[in-house]
Each structure stands twice: as structure tokens, then as C-alpha cells.
Amino acid sequence: MSSLHTKNHNPDSVSRRALLTALAVSPLALKLPAFAAAPAIDSAAIDALAERFRTELEIPGLAVAITTPQQDYAKGYGIRTLGEAGAVDEHTLFAIASNSKAFTAAALAVLVDEGKVGWDQPVRTYLPEFKMFDPAVSQMMTVRDLLTHRSGLPLGAGDLLYFPPSTHKSADVLKALEYLKPVRGFRSGYDYDNILYVVAGLVIERVSGKSWQDFVTQRLLRPLGMLESVPDRDSVNTANVAGRHGRRGPPVTGLGPLTKVFIDDPTSTTAAAGGINTSASDIVHWLRAQLDHGKLPDGSRVWSEKQAAELWTPQTIMSSSDGAIPDDPTNPVTSTYALGWIVRDYRGERILRHSGGLHGQVTQTALLPKRGIGVAVLTNVEGYEAGGLINAVIDQLIGAPAFDWLESTKTRTARRQQEALKTIGAEPDQPPPGGLSLPLARYAGRYRDAWYGDVVIKPEGDGLAIQFVPTPAFHCRLEQWGGDSFRTHFSKDAGEDAVLHFAVEKGKVTGLTMKALSPIADFSYDFHHLSFKPVAGK
Predict the structure, then answer these.
(1) Where are the beta strands (DSSP E) in 420-520?
(2) C-alpha R_g of the chain
(3) Cα separations in angstroms, 488 against 26, 165, 431, 474, 502
(4) Domain endpoint, select from 386, 421, 456
(5) Are 341 and 354 within 8 A, CB to CB?
(6) CATH classification at residue 453
(7) What is the pLDDT of residues 72-110, one digit of tens each?
(8) Sequence-distant (≥ 6) Cβ neighbours of residue 444 within 8 angstroms
(9) How many CB atoms neighbour CB 420 within 10 A?
């Protein structure tokens, strides 16, 4: 059932219905030019788009949230989990993953307003123990740098510290940073990471004296009226939660039938990078607060107009192009990263957006500031479906020229699959040539990587097994896989498999390196950043 509200002037009520409303005409709306005024939300048109995407792309369930200067709208479609009873509605919780980064940025904005944090103050002002690989960068990196993906670290650096869930704690993240090698100069380009958002969460904790979860809940979620939302999965206390789904097939290609998949939500250690769970009805409040520059319906503020401008100001160039292409008439001329938001052009105007992806769930949020429009699409399936649907919803709201975003999504997905299969090759799961230069037992032992920690390789049956000590899910038998190499056979709930290569000199193992088995593995399985050495006497 839909949740469609005309905004009123009763912000003082604490009821759910009142908390889903806002002022009839916001200050932002008064500034909009006449051509930018948003029409009434056509719920039938939104329903048609959502159901077409859901059925033709086999999305088990999804939710759509919209705010305009006149109305708020939230509705669920389909089922929460395959094979189980329970429909998605406007109150169903979804893990929004990296869409949480904008909340961490806003939390810092609150502290900047209070004079407790400075955007351009060195991180070591607040975390004296903070170290990067380069001591000079350790000194220069600012709070702003933590949020802008320009540190020089490689894509996904350090994600294996906490994905899949591990025993690593926040202190381990800080200790690991100085061993993660950069791939480019500081502030010289864009590479997406999660680990520095974890550090940003530690700054919030150190300065406020509260956990990131408590600070975000008390200073953002509850003041905004997001009463259903929680800062991490451990805080979820309802059964109305979206399941996780993906296509699982051969261990390399990953292509296959749609099925339920495991949950790999960020732990309390890493929630600042992607922990928030929210609903369509709740995220409307977040979108509206962003569009109203931190101002609430009663006139009070969560963050200032000045900090709102900081949050939206581009900091890092992500990419540039010639613009529209046949499969995407909104392909941006320029994409940039601000503070927790991607800022780019969309049909001739500015759009702020972000996505969030975990195993089996992808979400998207978008803001069109000139029009006072915010949209979120929450899905319980992994893939590119949320991006196509959010574009279709935005185009419907602004009366853009007709374009079939569903067919575009199908075409682009098929192309990516074809490119992936071409990358993998004709026989992706066949062992390469080569044998072992040592007796099997000589590969056994404990090995240590400076930033990740230890793995233990031990005899098991007539072969070997591996245990990644901090990551319980990474435990399995090994299969010989080419010269002095082995591959894992992790359970399907552990994620991507790895290939291990032992360096052997003068009859001894001197080192161990790894890479993902699949060349199209998710970047968070950064096995290739590991470099293990034998631990003497272990």
C-alpha cells in the first residue's frame, strides 16, 4: 500500500503520520524558477515503472521513496524474501550500504558546526596514532580527505579486514593503514575506498565521546524523524526486513539462477562506511533534510546552511566524457565526488547521487536540488536494476523525453556479462599447468600479512586446508592449482575464492601471495593486496 502525503504545517506531532510530513512550501521551493516546479506525483505511473522493472528483471522486492516540494511518497512492491511470506511495504528495512557515507559526512558537519572538528584540520589532531604508508601523508591528511577517495590508496584497499565479517576491531583498522601501499600520489586522483570512512567514524567517536552508532542515531536519525532506521544490522529489531538475492552459478562466472544469498553487512567496527538500515518511509526524511540544507520543518537545524554547501561541493574528479550515449542519454560530462555524495550533471542540471551495494542488495539515492526532488530506490537483489529504475522515476517526475530505461538496463547488463565471460575465457574453472616443487606438508604453517593478520595452512586428510584467522568464513580445503599454487573452495556464503601462490627458494617457502580466482571478483575481495611471510616457530 502506498504512502502518499501532502505536506502540512503540523511538525509538532510525534505520530508516524505527522513525521512523514513537511512544510507545504519549503524555503528551497520558494527559490525555484517557475519551470522547475515539480508536478504532483503520479502514483499510477510510479507503480507501473516499479512493477515493470520488478517483474521483467526478476527483482523479488523493492521500495520507492520520493519527496517533492509538495508531496512525500513511499511504497513497497513484491516480496521480502524468495520462498517466504511477507510483502515489501514502505516500512521494510533495507541495508543501504555505502549510502551511509553521506550520513557519516553529515555527522561530521554537525561537529564542524559545533567547532569540535575542522574539515581541513589534520586527522592526527583527533587521532594522534593515525598513520598512512607515507609519513608525509600521515601528517597532511585532513578530515576532508577521509571522505573524498583521493588518498592514493588502491580501489577497495583493506576491505578484507572486515568483508566478510571478521574479528578485527576499530583499532586494527588504524594499525593496518600504515601497511597499505598507495598506487598513486596523495590527492592526485580517485580510487574508491571504505577504510577511510571507518577512520572518519573513529574521529566522530573520539571527538563526541559516543560510538558512531549512538551519535548518528541521536544527532541525525531521531531528529530527522527516522524512527524505524538503525545504524547497523545488529540494531535491527523487526521481522520486516528485506532478504538478499543474487545469481549464483559456477565459482568464477557467478552467473546462474536467482537465489537467496548470505548476509555480509558491515559490523559495528565498519558501520560508518555502510551500516545503516532504513525504510522507504524513513529515507524520505533524509532526502528532504538534504534538500532543505539541514533545516527541519519546525525551523530548527541539524546542520547549517554553510555545512550543507560543504557537503555538496565537488572535491575529486571521478571521470569525464562527451556526454550522452545511445544506452544512456544522461551519461555525465563530468562526475565528481563531494563529501559522501557523487555530484554530476543529469539532463542539463546538477544531480547528487550515491549507490550502496552488499551481497544481495543494492540501493540508490538521488537529489535534484534545483527542483527540490529526492528519490530513493531500495532493492533486495544485486545488479544494476536500482540505477535504471531510479533514472526512470526521475525522468517521470521531471517530464524528461521518453527513454526506455528497462531495455537500457537489460542491454547494459548483457554487455557486461559478455565482457566478463570474454575476460574469464573459455575454460575459466580449469587448473593451469604446473606442479609442486615441495612435499605437500612443507607448504603448511602460519603466515602473516602486515595489515590483515594471519592465515594458517595445515594438513587435512590427504591434502591441505586454510584458515584466515580473523575471518571465520574463510576456511576450506585447498586444491592444487598450477606451479606451487592452490585454490580455495570457500562455501557459497563466504564469497569469492582465491588462488594462493607460494614463493619457494632453496627448498623453503619464503612468501605467500594471493589473487581472486575470478577476474571479475568484487573489488572488496582484495586478496591481491596481501603479502604473507612465514611466521617463525609457528
Answers:
(1) 445-449, 453-460, 463-468, 475-480, 485-488, 498-505, 508-516
(2) 24
(3) 56, 18, 12, 9, 14
(4) 421
(5) yes
(6) 2.40.128.600
(7) 999 999 999 999 999 999 999 999 999 999 999 999 999
(8) 457, 458, 459, 464
(9) 17
Judgement on whether residues 339 and 487 belong to the same structural domain of the protein: no
Residue range 205-254, pLDDT digits in tens: 999 999 999 999 999 999 999 999 999 988 999 999 999 998 776 655 55
DSSP state of 328: B
- How far out from the chain centre does Cα 348 lie? 27
What's the pTM value of the predicted model, to 2 decimals?
0.91
Collapsed DSSP state (helix, strand, coil) of residue 476: strand
pLDDT at 426: 52
Tell me if residue 234 falls in helix, strand or coil: helix
| Residue 120 domain-assigned (yes or no) | no
Q: Which amino acid is at 286?
A: W
Where are any strands of DSSP class E within 58-202? 61-67, 71-78, 94-95
Whether 152 has a pLDDT exceeding 60, the answer reads yes
Residue 247: give the domain boundaries: 3-113+198-421
Task: Return mean pLDDT, the chain.
Answer: 89
Which position has the grid cell 602460519? 446
Question: What residues contact 224, with CB distance under 8 A and at least 6 apart?
Answer: 285, 286, 289, 296, 302
The single-letter DSSP state of residue 208 is: H
Q: Residue 324 belongs to a domain with what CATH number?
A: 3.40.710.10
In a shared domain, residues 374 and 459: no
Q: What are phi and psi of 154, to 5 degrees?
A: -75, 165
Look up residue 523 and give its three cell numbers: 573489488
φ, ψ for residue 260, nearest 5 deg: -70, 140
Same-domain pairing of 212 and 302: yes
Overall average pLDDT of the 301-314 stretch: 98
Distance separating alpha carbons of residues 499 and 477, to the nearest angstrom:
12
User: Both 414 and 469 in a single domain?
Assistant: no
